Amino acid sequence: MEFVLKKFGPQDFDDYFRLVSDAKVMAMITERAMPLDEAQPDYAAMLLNNGIHPELGSFKILDAQHGHFIGLAKLEVSAANADTAELGYIILPEYWGQGIAGRVARLLVTRAQEQPGLKHLFAIIDPANLPSRKILLNNQFVFREFMDFDGLPGEILERGC
């Protein structure tokens, strides 16, 4: 399956909420589905972040042929001139096991390498998420540290651009 990335916009909240309100999807992220009253401000913050850089931010992953929503991909920076970006992806369960996350990760690494000034990438995963760990290692990420994120375990991996 071919896919395309398109930045999330104000009209895309339903797709975002479909993803983050799914307990199966969020099991390795927040360990719980996100309720509407949390998802709305998170989405608003994501849209603000999307305005920081024209080529970076949070993207819908869409089936190139039919336009079906597959998930979220992000290459997020905190400022337009940042030299570090966070890489991430969340895929709907019906698309798991098709190699999409690995292809998305490769695409995001390539996109990061094309951005002048970006020097570092990092990703945060649940240490128990072995498939995501494998995807990141296959994309030359290396272990940096374990951290606690609001009571949840997190493993940070990084790589240069």
Automatic annotation (TrEMBL):
Gene3D superfamilies (UniProt xref): 3.40.630.30
Alphabetical list of InterPro entries matching this protein: Acyl_CoA_acyltransferase, GNAT_dom, N-acetyltransferase
Name of this chain's protein: GNAT family N-acetyltransferase
UniProt domain N-acetyltransferase: residue ranges: 3-161
PANTHER family: GNAT FAMILY, PUTATIVE (AFU_ORTHOLOGUE AFUA_3G00765)-RELATED-RELATED, N-ACETYLTRANSFERASE DOMAIN-CONTAINING PROTEIN
Keywords: Acyltransferase, Transferase
Top-level class of the enzyme under EC nomenclature: transferase
Species, as recorded: Herminiimonas glaciei
Keyword Acyltransferase attributed: yes
Lineage top rank: taxon: Bacteria
Cited SUPFAM superfamilies: Acyl-CoA N-acyltransferases (Nat)
EC number(s) per entry: 2.3.-.-
GO molecular function, one term: acyltransferase activity
Leader peptide range in chain numbering: none
PROSITE patterns, sorted: GNAT
Keyword Metal-binding tagged: no
